[in-house]
Amino acid sequence: MKWVARFGSFFISFFSPLRGPGDDGGPTRLPLRPFLLPPCRYMGTLGSQVMCDNIPGLVNKQRQLCRQHPKVMQAIGGGMKDWIFECQHQFRSHRWNCNTTARDYSLFGRLPLRGSREVAFLYAISSAGVVYTLARACSQGELDSCSCDPTKKGSSWDEKGSFDWGGCSDHVEHAVRFSQTFVDAKDRKERDARALMNLHNNRAGRKAVKRFMTLECKCHGVSGSCSVRTCWLALADFRLTGDHLRRRYNSAVQVTVNQYGSGFTAAHTQFRHASKNDLVYLEDSPDYCIRDQESGSAGTAGRLCDRTSRGMDGCEVMCCGRGHDTARVSRTTKCECKFHWCCAVHCRDCHQQVDVHTCKSQT
């Protein structure tokens, strides 16, 4: 998965302006450092070959695809920040929060070397993100190599009756095929235990996107009678995929490679075998309490915690027993909002003093 980290770092800096925390008034963004290449406006001068040759971590098959499909690569680069934010959302209350060491220039920071369940989630969410991004780019007409799903023609039916295919169905099958070819290329060459783990989790991520495809329809007929329906398949919100993969993370199966080196068996015989939808991992996770570059842990020093919670976000758990610091800060929120005809809502800015708790550093 080094291609994801390095490739993501390259594209986010290459195709996007560098953005710091709160530039758009939204949540704090993962800090990213610029790669040593010029921005997107110079892409025509550089050419796809120069661009692809300067992305570290790609194998020959990936470089070849990159040169052949520069617009696809640009779409993937633009979508990467969306699924890293989804990863951070899913683990916002976890010691490991999809961030590792700040000194690394990669999208996820330095990826942990061990085959932990966190790495399993990273591979799955990244693979899912590639599928989601490409399927959406196809249906929005951003790519020359694909458009709407051409197989959705004629008539079909569901539990409500018959309908005609119309509109623009998201071409998820094309996105799955490209993702499988590009994302899996490096691990298909290796074929060791870690490669098998990566390939399995990549597939689970792709399947998760397909799982939440929804049939959307528009009714036609007198007075909305819906005597005729026109329908299309659409991607669901990516949050559903993120939620699903987080649940799979919680129930991930620890595995070992079978005697033939072709698949997995459960590491503990009392547990079930892994299905194609499960996430699998090889090694136990570190505790992520302290900063450790070898394991990819950024530690929890300085992390926000909830003093009253007994869960993962509680100060006792989040801070690993090191204790926490408390500071009083002023926060501004909208309050006393009133609706004025027509059509505006006016609010006051209210200032509130709140206590903020952060984990102490290791002594």
UniProtKB/TrEMBL annotation:
GO cellular component term of the entry, any: extracellular space
The UniProt record lists the keyword Iron: no
Location(s) in or outside the cell: Secreted, Extracellular space, Extracellular matrix
Gene Ontology biological-process annotations: canonical Wnt signaling pathway; cell fate commitment; hepatocyte proliferation; neuron differentiation; swim bladder development
Keywords linked to the UniProt accession: Developmental protein, Disulfide bond, Extracellular matrix, Glycoprotein, Lipoprotein, Secreted, Signal, Wnt signaling pathway
Designated name of the protein: Protein Wnt
Reported function: Ligand for members of the frizzled family of seven transmembrane receptors.
InterPro entries: Wnt, Wnt2, Wnt_C, Wnt_CS
Domain of life from the UniProt record: Eukaryota
Main location: secreted
Entry's family note: Belongs to the Wnt family.
Record-level Gene Ontology MF annotations: cytokine activity; frizzled binding
Native source organism of the sequence: Oryzias latipes (Japanese rice fish)
Entries under PANTHER family matching the protein: PROTEIN WNT-2, WNT RELATED
